[in-house]
Amino acid sequence: MKRKEFLRELKEELRKRRDIETEEVLFYYDELIQDAVDNGENEEIFIINLGNVREIVRRIEDDKEFVAEVKKTNKNLLNDAFSITVKLIGYAIIILAAIVLGSAAFSIFVSGISVVFASIVRMLFAGPLDLYGYLALLGLALIGISLVVFSVAVVKWFLDKAKPSLLTIFRNTKEFLNRKGK
Amino acid sequence: MDSQQKKGLLELMVLASLKYEDSYGYIINQNINDVMEISESTLYPILRRLEKQYMLETYQTIYNSRVRKYYRITKEGLKKLKLSEDDFREVKKIYDFILR
Questions:
Q1: pTM of the full structure
Q2: Which chain A residues touch B52 with a CB distance below 8 Å?
């Protein structure tokens, strides 16, 4: 197998895993093979010795977990460095943010739904309209739909961002309640 | 030697191979292969891991009208290397005792 073919296979294998930096890996192997050839090695033999692409990708993937672990331990160290007070204030702010954001998103969601509902009702039951009337109602319904989508997106975004903290709060509260119960 | 142990040693070998001069993938591989036999595809995850841990940094140069990525050891990497060198001196004493 020649370099181009190997790189194509590797690319295909990498494309199946979205969380690996494809270009970086391809670049590395491209450079490696060209350096080997410049150094007088046989291209095909060198490529055979690289092993099959699935194995290569698997190794990178195994290591990804390690990288994630390193990041996590670093974060834990940082957390430990914070005093409990700071943490509690932080959690209070997160909970407050959750309540405020949640109710705002909820009201936007409800108003979105009602706008859609109102325009549908108007279209169905309020007798014939001219073209502009229908268009206006359609526009209104679309505005309603976008409000709904927007509110859901906001909540989802917040949950994604705050998920680790929220889970910690949840776990701590549960522990606290359990201890009280005993 | 078991693979976990080998992995840890490989990291240190990469750092050690960059202690005095910057280098690139193919040559790092060759240097290490003189001592411990590894396949070429073993090295990439290790280089990347060291880079993510800020032990190595990279820069690119043009060679033969193509780009080549060079690796350079950072202060952090040198610190790690120094620590392990101290460890190894201790371990070496123990091995010397066992193998005497």
A1: 0.54
A2: 67, 70
